[in-house]
Amino acid sequence: MTPSKTATASTPPDVQFGYRRLVLGSDGFHTVLHLRAVLVAVGFALFIIVLAAAALMNGDYELTLAQVIAVLNGSDDGLARTVVLDWRLPRILAAILLGGALAVSGAIFQTLTRNPLASPDIVGLSHGAFTGMLLTVLAFGTSWALMATGAVAGGVLAALAIYMISYRGGIQGFRFIIVGIAISAMLASVNTWILLQVELETAMFASAWGAGTLNAVTPEQVNGAALAILVLFVAIATLAPALRQLDLGDDAAAALGLRLGRVRLFAILIGVGLVCVATAVAGPVAFVALAAPQIAQRAARTPYLPLVLSALAGGAILLGSDFIAQHLLPHPLPVGVVTVVVGGAYLVWAIIAEIRKRA
Questions:
Q1: Quick one: which of 341, 322, 278, 296 has its CA closest to 54?
Q2: What is the pLDDT of residue 75?
């Protein structure tokens, strides 16, 4: 359905943008579902399920689909159970959860700044988390709990520095991004200097983690990350209506009674929390937060960045990248290497598409 040229101000927004919509519920409470967005969500979910099944089946110890189903049903207690539940499933769940967390974080920052380049890896939050992790390793060793704490602290401090430097009676998107890029470059230099000062073994461990990897993910890490991400997802769901009002512009949102400063601050804290949790488990995985929200929006053709679709797109991208890194290359690589290639290709395509659109 294409937008009608005769659409008036009384035409529902969904019709003006050319959507078919489903309204569920009574007059007191209803939910509007855009048909295209629902179909895109189903497509992402099916892609994740198929890819997860393929990842469970493939590896040094190959399994059939029947064996995987038997393990998941609890009817197989042999080696296949160890391979599926202890080795492969935690990695798959981590890819889906962390990809979703990164994507939602990217959608939050891109919504707040109204700029598709505003993502945690671009504005320095990932580098800040990496700095915190490196300092923790130097001071306390390679305990995962301490590394996770250091990564969260580093990301929060980086976000606080960016916020304070870019704040001028409010947060302006372009200033926030420029300050973030500058902080990111500084932290990247600090991280390189730290790696040059430590012992070779520690430097190799930190460098592998700094590229973004799911190789050392354990069920305990997945459980902890899942709990934190669930809490943060619930928090951002409560802010979703306010974020939609921000899409109308600051003046319109303020006229509707929205407290812009408070909403932005809470949204930034949630976005920082999501990227810090993901970084604490897998390291600074690049480009997922940048590309996933834009891919979700372009696929669903929504006038805003859809959070649920962004999470599904992020999970699909990270899971697909990890599958490529582990099974489709001559030698296994950290997943962050593949996401850089995929994200870079997307960024080039997006720039070319934007140039053609303006021309």
A1: 322
A2: 79
